[in-house]
Amino acid sequence: MDPITQGVLGAALPQAVTRQQKIVGATVFGALAGMAPDLDVLIRSSTDPLLFLEFHRQFTHSLLFVPFGGLICGMILYAVFGNRFQLSLKFSILFSTLGYATHALLDACTTFGTQLFWPLSSARVAWNNVSVIDPLFTLPLLLLVIIGYLTRRPRFAQFGLAWALAYLLLGVVQRDRAEAAGWAMAQQRNHTPINLEAKPTFANLWLWKVVYETEDDFYVDAVRVLHTTQYIAGEKAKKLDIDDDFPWLEKNSQQAKDIERFHWFSNGYLAVDSSNRNRIIDARYSLVPNQIKPLWGITLDPQADASQHVIYFTERDTGPSQRAKFFGLLFGQDQAPVKGIIDK
To answer: Measured between alpha carbons, how far is residue 114 from residues 40, 49, 58, 131, 257 in Å?
Structure first.
């Protein structure tokens, strides 16, 4: 989730359970600790472009690390701000731990994947029930936290937490409806998906991207989930076959190892970019939900030596054409015909 939302939720929990005289300190310490786990983005390498993918949302986001993260944040914040906010070390650690604890659980509600159970498991947990940026979730929570801060009343933060929980539960309901539509689409095509996921699109809970995997291909479609569930058929891409797509690749080379690392990060949703056959893309994400237009991927070099890494790339095509397509789907103004209505 974006840093502002992480900070606001981190502030809300300690603010909701503390006394009036400690609300200011609880809010500040909870907000800062709520954002702290994302400091793992600083773990990077100038020679290994995929290192940050392995460490982002790893140990700092593990549930087992929460007591340690809270302790570290609490001690640092106490040393810097303890006297200013008249907080003891005990309350500094308590408020920081509460704020820190919200971070990984909120991240797991998004689609990126969070290693909640590291080091017991490296599985990337993604509940897919809220977008990584969603003002409809954040702004009411922010407003209630600010009011609670100004009035010194915990009740407003409690209302904010109730709003956050209700919104996330609504996301679960909407995700399940979108997944049901995805299974219906697959059946209409006489497909039996190996895997199927529905992911919320930017800043809303009614337009979803459904991506599913068959034996040979990935299919992506847009689903609009309101009083009826409608879908707009999308594109497909052939699944990555290393032997067929990159016959020149040495199996023990660093590039081959990097493909395995990217395969883990992408949960296996890998395809070759149709516009550049040396690029491998993550088929799960795109701005327009019924397109296969990658947000990130890796580029291989046929001339590389055995020790050379792949090149990691990101693409953010948010030009007028893409925005128009997205908002057309979002508000039902798309020019492409709706292909079906799943329920009424």
So the answer is: 12, 19, 7, 14, 22
Q: Assess whether 130 and 198 both reside in one domain.
A: no
The β-bridge relationship of strands 279-282 and 296-299 is: antiparallel
Gap between the Cα atoms of 121 and 231, Å rounded: 36
- Per-10-residue mean pLDDT of the chain, 344 residues long, equals 97 95 95 98 95 95 98 97 94 98 98 95 96 97 97 97 98 97 95 96 96 96 94 94 95 96 95 93 94 94 95 89 93 59 39
Say what the alpha-carbon torsion angle 156, 158, 159, 162 is, to the nearest 10 degrees: 160
Q: Range of 195's domain?
A: 191-344
Q: Pairing state of beta strands 217-225 and 236-238?
A: antiparallel
Q: Tell me the residue ranges of DSSP E strands in 136-216.
A: 195-200, 207-213
Give the separation between CA 257 and CA 322, rounded to whole angstroms: 34
pLDDT (0 to 100) of residue 340: 45
Same domain, 9 and 140: yes
- Shared domain for 195 and 237, answered yes or no, is yes
pTM over 0.85: yes
Shared domain check, 202 and 157: no
SS3 107: helix
321/203 same-domain check: yes
Q: Domain check: are 151 and 296 in the same one?
A: no
CA 324, chain centre distance (Å): 23
Angle at 243 between CA 209 and CA 264, to 5 degrees: 45
328 HSE (CA, 13 A, CB side):
15
What is d(CA 342, CA 344) in angstroms, rounded to the nearest whole number?
A: 7
Same domain, 197 and 126: no
What are 9's two structure tokens?
A: 């939720």
| pLDDT at position 344 | 31
pLDDT at 334: 60
- pLDDT value of residue 15: 97
Tell me the CA distances in angstroms from 103 to 72, 76, 165, one per residue in order: 15, 18, 14
